[in-house]
Amino acid sequence: MLNLFHQTTVTMKQTTLFFSYLLLTIACFAQKADQRLQQQVTQLLKGFNGDIGIYVHDLKRNRIVSINADTVFPTASMVKVPILTGIMDKIHRKELDYHQVLTYKDSLLYEGVDILGSFKNDEKIELSKVMMLMLTMSDNTASLWLQTLAGKGTRINELMDSLGLKVTRVNSRTPGREANRNMYGWGQSSPREMASLMEMIVKKQVISDSTSQMMLRLLGRNYWDENAISQIPSDVFVASKSGAVDATRNEVLFVNGKKCSYVFCICTKNNKDISWDESTNEAWVLTRKLSKLLWEYYN
């Protein structure tokens, strides 16, 4: 009887995975390129000193722009969206509670300037606030703690696979992914897949309707708003996550205005400019120009 149950469970998982891939494939084929916008974006990228990928989806007209959209890039802190998915899955299954109290330990510290890392050993904090620190402040100590609570990278990667995302993976502290970690760092994805994950959240297709709505609200509280977000009027709803290491600068956004609704992701790697001045860094300047172009084009 137990063996029959196991076989049935495996079959159901395989069926769910098949339909996830099928729906994602059908959606991709149904989309049409916005040739005029594609030309404008291509022109904008000329002369960039690094590797770049962009994916844009106009949700109202189902038109896309795709430039190296399936190339794999380091996620940097964009990996925190998959980690969020893992935590929300645990909450949905009632294995964690959104407001449960956790106990911080010094062993969790990831050296840097994180807020959570300034806590004293044995201090208490709600899970919800750790999640806020991960997404709003991009706190790495909080993020690595949540990655463990989510079932570690292996479980998060299984969730990404179940959503039809083939290259979006957590690499750090994940068995069997050391080679990927050496190449891409903490996580990896493509512009198309990271934008698709955001879009699935928007369309309430991640875990459950209510879970997706909560995820979207959480992603709408970003402290780091001086690049792509800065080009969107302040009265427009934006959900986002950015990521940066020396030679990589990324950002994924959902923008919902009165006249427009779109998702876009810009990923870069092997950047020649590895400076940290937001006003002059080449990739960040380009990110602001792209965001401005898209907002003006759709409005």
TrEMBL record:
GO terms for molecular function: beta-lactamase activity. GO terms for biological process: beta-lactam antibiotic catabolic process; response to antibiotic. It catalyses: a beta-lactam + H2O = a substituted beta-amino acid. Its EC number is 3.5.2.6. SUPFAM superfamilies: beta-lactamase/transpeptidase-like (SSF56601). It comes from Hydrobacter penzbergensis. Belongs to the class-A beta-lactamase family. This is beta-lactamase. It comes from the Bacteria. Gene3D superfamilies: DD-peptidase/beta-lactamase superfamily (3.40.710.10). Residues 53-268 form the Beta-lactamase class A catalytic domain.
